[in-house]
Amino acid sequence: MTVLPLEEMTEERVLLSDRIRNVLTDEIASGALPAGTALDEQQLADRFSASRTPVREALRQLSVSGLVEMRPRRGVIVTRMTPERIMEMFEAMAEIEALCVRFATYRMTPLERSHLMELHRSSEAMVLAGDIDAYDSFNREFHVGIYRATHNNFLVDQAIGIRLRLNAFRRTQLHQGDRLERSREEHDAVMRAIAQGDGDKAARRMRAHMLNAASALGRYIELHQSRDGTY
Amino acid sequence: MTVLPLEEMTEERVLLSDRIRNVLTDEIASGALPAGTALDEQQLADRFSASRTPVREALRQLSVSGLVEMRPRRGVIVTRMTPERIMEMFEAMAEIEALCVRFATYRMTPLERSHLMELHRSSEAMVLAGDIDAYDSFNREFHVGIYRATHNNFLVDQAIGIRLRLNAFRRTQLHQGDRLERSREEHDAVMRAIAQGDGDKAARRMRAHMLNAASALGRYIELHQSRDGTY
DNA sequence: ATAAGCAAGTGTGTATGCACATTGCGCCGA
DNA sequence: TCGGCGCAATGTGCATACACACTTGCTTAT
User: In this predicted model, which residue has the larger pLDDT, A31 or B183?
Assistant: First the structure.
């Protein structure tokens, strides 16, 4: 193997269009680009100091994963989701999560189990500190850890994909009242079922956990909903 | 995966890149473009009498749905799947199908139920005639009908997306021995459970149905496997 | 003989230009 | 005042051009 010149080590050697896609993905998932935002190709090209070509390719990819909506010759907008659609996604996500934790319970290695328990333990401090950012980040790791423990890489990819699309909404619901404490309690219940090796129980509790998060979000939407049915 | 607008099906005023994507999707799913095939941009452009631009945009979209693999500056190939990966997909598909039929059992309207039963009934003639093409087409309708009966459009899109990616493999296993008859018998068992309103039973039977299909495919792969682990 | 190095060729990645569909606005007529 | 028509502006869709990364085959040196 040859030693790379310094510049190649520091410089991002990935495709420009992929970098743009990743940035846009993050911004949509984080809510920095709210639903309904029009994405002007030239404007984005200027922003990334690129031409429209890689921007277009990034937008094409985002449209497949459903983060943006392309209306032929009428431009691209960040997908505007109705409360119904969001609830459908949460419902599906709840089932996928339940499925994952059931598989994970039966298939995870002792190492994976201890890693997950350690992760779970570490979340207590975040709840006490009320650190939503830290908890949000932990939460992602926790759930992805469960996906991986299914030892089914395809399932992992699917679950991560859906989770990504719900990111923008998931995070908001953590602001609801005592949702942080409740979330951790529910994680705890799931972990106890895993420890008992009861995959079905873990699955039921995970489903409940996700549906609780959904209904917390539902209350949030009720409160903040705007006239056009989006928020 | 996003649902295509209706106009794309009939009208010609569709995006060139979308038409190219659809054609390539079909050809990959049908096996006309076998796994590992290199997709040369200029060559495809010539074939569709277009420039490389819409071809590239189509390929970008296919890479997101996992049908092709883009290696930066090294071209695009039809995703070469290992038997392990295929089995993982079937396992996940089996669970998604089980989930869908469980939801469908509890939520389908009488109209949907009768439509599905009529569809199922019509498959008997195809089995007797040994018409694999007709059965394959019916099979798709049958399963998609179940997805739709979940009344969760997001779930429908997800399920169709996964089913699409498994198409090329699903079809081959129908050639295995008496798989056609067995498939219909399994459908029948699922339908009976639906008629009884027993969603869990329907789910278990559907899972078994999909896993049977997977193992039929597994036998097929055993027989036809090539040296590099793909087939 | 094998491996390293070099050079030409192929094909991807990005930029740019142009055509036209869509939209918004203003003008005109009822 | 209101609706229809048309024109201009905006921005997408596609074509084309070019630079350079990667590959391939040959040469050369050990």
Answer: B183
Which domains does chain B carry?
Answer: 7-78 (1.10.10.10), 83-224 (1.20.120.530)
Helix/strand/coil (H/E/C) assignment for every residue in chain A: CCCCCHHHHHCCCCCHHHHHHHHHHHHHHHCCCCCCCEECHHHHHHHCCCCHHHHHHHHHHHHHCCCEEEECCCEEEECCCCHHHHHHHHHHHHHHHHHHHHHHHHHCCHHHHHHHHHHHHHHHHHHHHCCHHHHHHHHHHHHHHHHHCCCCHHHHHHHHHHHHHHHHHHHHHCCCCCHHHHHHHHHHHHHHHHHCCCHHHHHHHHHHHHHHHHHHHHHHHHHHCCCCCCC
* CA A164 to C1' D13, whole Å: 29
Kindly list the residues of chain B whose beta carbon comes within 8 Å of any beta carbon in chain A: 1-2, 14-15, 17-18, 53, 56-57, 60-61, 63-66, 72, 85, 88-89, 91-92, 95, 99, 152-155, 157-158, 162
Over residues B10-56, the pLDDT tens digits come to: 334 589 999 999 999 999 988 899 999 999 999 999 999 999 999 99
What is this structure's pTM? 0.89
Task: Look at A88 and B162 and tell me if their CB atoms are within 8 Å.
Answer: no
Q: Which of A76-85, B39-48, B136-145 has the lowest mean pLDDT?
A: A76-85
